[in-house]
Amino acid sequence: MHISINPWVWLGVFFTFSVLSFLYKDNPFYKLAEHVTVGVSIGYGMVIIWHNALIPRFYMPVFQEGKLILIIPAILGLMMILRIVPKYSWLSRYAICFSVGGGAGLAIPRSMQASVLRQLEATMLDLGFTTTQGINNIVIFVGVLAVLIYFFFSKEHKGVFGGIAKLGIWFLMVGFGATFGYTVMARLSLFIGRVLFVLQDFLGINLAG
Predict the structure, then answer these.
(1) Which structural domain, as residue segments, surrounds residue 145?
(2) Does 68 map to a domain?
(3) What HEC string does 4-19 produce?
(4) In this predicted structure, what is the pLDDT of residue 156?
(5) Cα 135 from chain centroid (whole Å)
(6) Which residues of the chain have pLDDT under 70?
(7) What pLDDT is attached to residue 21?
(8) How many domains does the chain have?
(9) What is the pLDDT of residue 81?
């Protein structure tokens, strides 16, 4: 075992244990790590916006290429920032209304394409009992139909209709369970990554050998 002398590794270990200390209770070390994370994220985001948005998409097109039309969205962006100035905060409403209206106009067709049409296309499958894929397609089709019937509230869930609705509940529970399991595994992967960082990078333990 050989403990690292790299100060950045020590700093990483300190913040790792500071975050994990929240498992015991809220404490100053966790709050420090939380505030540092938020501050660094904001600082990093501002640098990214400056180099990837303001310079290539505003400064260069306006002052080097003469695309003066881009001044209009720049003014709208400045009007949004005025939200923090009480005296002129009312100006931000116009910019927000324009942004929300334009964003909704662009988002609705895309959402329709991604959330409705693509989902309909994904359920238009070849059904058959001769292949494994065909059986899987039948399960998908039955599951989608049962879940849709469960959310059909204009008819009372009784008889055959109610039985299919209960089947839809089972499909929903399986879907939620799989999603929850995936989330847990993702969090465990993050935790394992931090454990490996402490053991290998900080303590110098060679787990491969």
Answers:
(1) 125-209
(2) no
(3) CCCHHHHHHHHHHHHH
(4) 86
(5) 33
(6) 1, 208-209
(7) 93
(8) 1
(9) 86
Domain-located, residue 191? yes
- What's the burial of 176, exposed, middle or buried (CB within 10 Å: 0-12/13-18/19+)? exposed
The pLDDT, as a whole number, for residue 82 is 87
- Burial class of residue 150 (count of CB atoms within 10 Å of its CB; 0-12, 13-18, 19+): buried
Q: How far apart are CA 192 and CA 190, in angstroms?
A: 5
Could you report the per-residue pLDDT of 46-98, keeping only the tens digit for each?
Answer: 999 999 988 998 889 988 888 888 888 888 888 888 888 888 888 889 988 98
Phi-psi region of 159 (alpha: psi -120 to 50; beta: other; left: phi over 0): left
Q: Is 161 among the domain residues?
A: yes
Instruction: Please check whether residue 14 lies inside any domain of the structure.
Output: no
- Provide CB contacts within 8 A for 198, sequence distance 6+: 13, 16
Strands (E), the chain: none
